[in-house]
Amino acid sequence: MVCWKIASLCFIISVVSHQVLSKSNTTKENHLPPCRACRNFIEYFKNAVQIVTNKTKDDKQAQFVEITKKLCTEQSDKLCEELMAKYSDKLEEWWIAGKEKHPNVESFICIETFKVCCPDLHYGPDCKPCSGYPNNVCNNNGKCKGSGTRKGNGGCLCDRGYTGEFCDKCSESHYEAYKDDKKLICAECHLSCEGLCTKAGPKGCAKCKPGFIMDKDKGCLDINECAARKRPCTPLQFCVNTEGDYRCLDCDRSCAGCSGDGPDMCIDCATGYEKKDKMCVDSGEQRRQNFVWYSRYLTYLGLCISTCIILNKNIYIAAVIGMCVGVYITVSEQTSSPTQNLEQQLADEIVNALNI
Questions:
Q1: Out of 57, 127, 170, 204, which could bridge 118 as a Cys pair, Cβ 3.0 to 4.6 Å?
Q2: What DSSP state is assigned to residue 150?
């Protein structure tokens, strides 16, 4: 019984959640700005026109009826149906007799007839031109607020790096890279600059960011925190300098203190490791390798002694066994040390034996 109640409660919650989400999505669709809603509807209309005119060659009246049937069926939203009811008479008028006089259906419906939009680079109830219209709106360094709609105040929303009422100045973190009567180009200050700068590079900084120091000849120079007397990192880390900062990275696990990455950069070896050829290696692994090495050569010695014993009994059998032992030793050495040059190793051993 308890399980049934829990299942019923979960079902009710899921249904209510679905209804709330559906209502939320519908509310968003039905509350588009008037201009955006009109332009979206005209796009739907154009898509429906393309589908219908590709399939039928009937008269315009019959085509329009098919278009209206197709339009909101394809989009299936309430806003489309509302706009269809609002715009249908004027759309039909345009479709049947207004194309030649008004070739742009969006302009005819959204701008001229229902006055919910403005031409591009115009704004407000009266569709006033934006500042600098047509070729220098906001000095080509920003966007006109409300452009293309009946909203907005025509002010400039400047691009990054520009400021001023008409985007005709550089912001604090940028400098004038180029300027003439018609054009202004602002470039970003060097990353070492804090605030204002007058030109490119660290020499253009008025003030340096933390992590940099001012040099009268070279401008803002990076401070190498890793070279400071007091280590910025813990004993089990090493320091990596970056522009204006530094990073602390963990030493290799074989190190008890290090100056860089890897077991060859250890200052001291961690417990369980020992120095070999200036590198910290696992001491347990080294002992295992030594044991394998001694075991292998004792095996070789035993095989050779056995061959000598057999030699006293039967020279032919000893010869066969000797060849097999030789092959075994050769293969064993190659597989156990595949990266070593055996000839060079043998030569080194002979030289060491003769103390040359």
A1: 127
A2: S
What is the amino acid identity at position 245? D
The number of beta carbons lying within 10 Å of the beta carbon of residue 77 is 15
Cβ contact 293:336 at 8 Å:
no
DSSP-H helix ranges across 94-163: 105-106
The string of DSSP letters for 198-254 reads SSSSGGGBSSBPTTEEEETTTEEEE--GGGSSS-SS-TTEEEEEETTEEEEEEPPTT
Cis bond before residue 34 (omega within 30° of 0) = no
Residue 122 has what DSSP assignment?
E
- For 83: left if phi > 0, alpha if psi spans -120 to 50, otherwise beta; the answer is alpha
Interatomic CA distance for residues 87 and 13, integer angstroms: 40
- Assessment of whether the complete model's pTM goes beyond 0.70: no
- What amino acid occupies position 159? D
Distance (Å, rounded) from C-alpha 207 to C-alpha 213?
A: 9
Helices (H) and strands (E) in the chain, counts: 8, 14
Per residue in 229-269, pLDDT (tens digit) is: 888 999 999 999 999 999 999 999 999 999 999 999 999 99
Q: For residue 19, name the pLDDT band (cuts at 50, 70, 90).
A: very low
* Of residues 141, 142, 143, 119, the one with CA closest to residue 129: 119
The answer to whether residues 54 and 101 touch, using CB atoms and an 8 Å cutoff, is no
Backbone angles phi, psi at 296, to 5 degrees: -65, -45
CB atoms within 10 A of CB 137: 22
